[in-house]
């Protein structure tokens, strides 16, 4: 086993060590530390040219980066995703239906990803809208054929409500549906 060979390059506040026995680079830098801290804490970096700080912001002075960092969770879409997934699980438990379990978990997880994407960017509602529209058609067709409200009618009604909700969001503008 050979001893580690390190080369060190120093700047006034930064140290970079290259380890030739592995693929690691060791960085010891206040600027890197501040960047990582700001990234992990999701705070906008302090900038002397920007008079707006994270403690004193008005709605007119919000920049895109501070708006992103203050976004919360899309509760309505998340609840809808959970209900769809729970419906699949309940269908499996009550009737032993593996297709219900698979469809519920598939559509629920797809809607969960869509809710996450909408939480990060309110204008990115296309996955949730597409999945809700597909569920409206599929479950509406099942409800029409069977006449049974549970589960097809309930999911169809919830899906129609979601499509209308997302359409309203698209027309009215971003960030009115996300809770901090």
Automatic annotation (TrEMBL):
Region: Disordered; residue ranges are: 41-64
- Domain of life where this protein originates: Eukaryota
- Compartment(s): Membrane
Question: Where is the chain membrane-spanning?
Answer: 71-92, 98-118, 150-171
**Which Gene Ontology cellular-component terms appear in the entry?**
mitochondrial membrane
* Keyword Lipid biosynthesis listed: no
Give the compositionally biased regions (Polar residues): 46-64
Could you give a single Gene Ontology term from the biological process aspect? regulation of heme biosynthetic process
Instruction: Name the keywords, alphabetized.
Output: Membrane, Transmembrane, Transmembrane helix
Q: What is its main location?
A: membrane
Annotated Pfam families: Tmemb_14
Could you say which protein family the record assigns here?
A: Belongs to the TMEM14 family.
Protein name listed in UniProt: Transmembrane protein 14C
Name the species this protein comes from. Tetranychus urticae
